[in-house]
Design goal:
mainly alpha; two-stranded antiparallel ribbon; 2 strands
Length: 146
Amino acid sequence: MLILGLIHLSPRLRPHAVEIVPSDDEAPSPTIDVLSSSTAPVATAPASFDPSIVIALATLVAHMDGIHKDLVDHIGQVHERVDRIAKHQELDIKAVQDTLSALSQRHSEFITDVNDFIQSIHHQWVTIRRIVIRTYCSVGLLCKES
């Protein structure tokens, strides 16, 4: 059995095992485990060349290329979705900031109006109180002099 793999594989990837049955006129090739060493031993080419090995390797590489293209496509779609979410969040944050700003402005206006109202009532009360005191004083009801 020949183990096909790459030297620096991600831990999530496992080596793929491919069963190669040698023909009657060729000796079985030694098993090469590329993952266990950083330098793979050099295998000598068999006396007779079997084109089915090339076809199998080409098929495997084409399959891996298809998987890679699908992953790249899906990663691109995820990036686009993240960008859309970020844009919506940006717009949502802007809307919340605008709403808070408007509410803060309304609150300030309300506090100003309430203070003005209180001052107005206080001023009117002081004025009414003075009038009442003068009136009672003029008739001699509240004044100490009477």
